Amino acid sequence: MSFDKVTDKASIRFSYTVLTANDVVKDWNERTRHSFNLRTQSKLTDRLTADVNASYTYDAMDNRGYRNSSSRNPLFILGNLPRDTSVEELIPWKDGNGKPFNLNGGFTNPYWLLYELPNHDTKHWFMGNITLNYRIFELFEFPFAYCYRFANCQGMGIYQYV
Questions:
Q1: Per residue, what are the HEC states of 61-116?
Q2: Number of H helices, E strands in the chain
Q3: If we measure between CA atoms, which residue out of 129, 121, 3 comes closest to residue 55?
Q4: Residue 69 has what pLDDT?
Q5: pLDDT class of 158 with cuts at 50, 70, 90
Q6: pTM of this prediction?
Q7: What integer pLDDT is reported at residue 162 of this predicted model?
Q8: What's residue 105's pLDDT?
Q9: Please, which pLDDT band fits residue 96 given cuts at 50, 70 and 90?
Q10: Does 11 have pLDDT greater than 70?
Q11: Is the pLDDT of residue 157 over 70?
């Protein structure tokens, strides 16, 4: 969604985007992202112009998938199971006390990784800049720019290896 307004002296544009996504594996990589953008340009005098930009993004992810050969990647673990392993050997993956069942010397059950080791992370990003251009002569401008960037990331994961 966006709104904009343009006049002979100024322009302004605001936009908002929301993204919700997930993975092909149920309850994996569930993401919600909100993005806000604001830009305004104005001609303050015949020689002075201003350009102001600001962006803010909030990104939340539940059960971010581990990749490659990570011991927390259920697909990697599944690919390295013995070929004669059956689904009946993998389900149930925990006993009545919540402890994992381990087969054949303690391998990690991919169902345990999917359903018992959740994680969550959030990220906040803010980026903004202000640029002032002062035209001294017809072919010579003096720009002044100030930029600011802030990022904050927080995450939570449960690590239970038995």
A1: EECCCCCCCCCCCHHHHHHCCCCCCCHHHHCCCECCCCCECCCCCCCCCHHHHHHH
A2: 3, 6
A3: 129
A4: 84
A5: low
A6: 0.74
A7: 43
A8: 62
A9: confident
A10: yes
A11: no
| Site of tokens 């490659």 | 68
How would you list the strands of the sheet with 119-137, edge to edge? 2-6, 10-21, 30-43, 48-62, 119-137, 140-157
- Asked, as a colleague might, if the bond just before 92 is cis with ω within 30 of 0, I would say yes
Dihedral of CA atoms 87, 81, 73, 112 in degrees, nearest 10, equals: 40
- Contact assessment for residue 22 and residue 40, using Cβ atoms and an 8 Å cutoff: no
Q: Is the pLDDT of residue 42 over 90?
A: yes
Reference 40, options 28, 60, 55, 26; nearest CA is 55
For 33, the enclosing helix (H) or strand (E) is strand 30-43
Measure the CA–CA gap between 73 and 25, rounded to whole angstroms. Answer: 12
Neighbours of 112 (CB within 10 A): 20
Other beta carbons within 10 Å of 139: 6
- The DSSP bridge partners found for residue 49 are 43, 133
